[in-house]
Amino acid sequence: MIFIGGISSAVKQLEYLKTVICSVCGSYGRYQVFMTYTYFSFFFIPLFKWNRKFYVKMTCCGSVYELDRETGMKILRGQAADIGENDLSLMQRGTGNFAEEGSCPDCGCRLSEDFSYCPQCGRKL
Fold this sequence. Notes:
With 125 residues, the chain is mainly β. The protein has 1 helix and 6 strands; from the N terminus they run βββββαβ. Strands 1, 2, 3, 4, 5 and 6 form a 6-stranded antiparallel sheet that branches. The protein is elongated and about 75 Å long. The mean pLDDT is 85.
């Protein structure tokens, strides 16, 4: 008798659209919500899942947050859920769209300290 089964891990992107101002880089970005889980499969058919964790990745800079489990389960079920700052805990700062000290966060233009707006893109500083 041959037994074909096993335990594996997977990542699933969940449907969620919300545009926010990123608290890490200061740019506009969207929340991308992901669920990671472990599952048992028998003859290549997943039978049950456990160890579900929810994460949010920012589209602007790539920062990754862990999402509160209750909010993640609501999104998974398709219920209306609003992700707030208190539902997120920063796990990894992103590497994209960061400005150097003394430059615009959006376009990277060099700035003087007395500027209120970027002379190149017009962003309020």
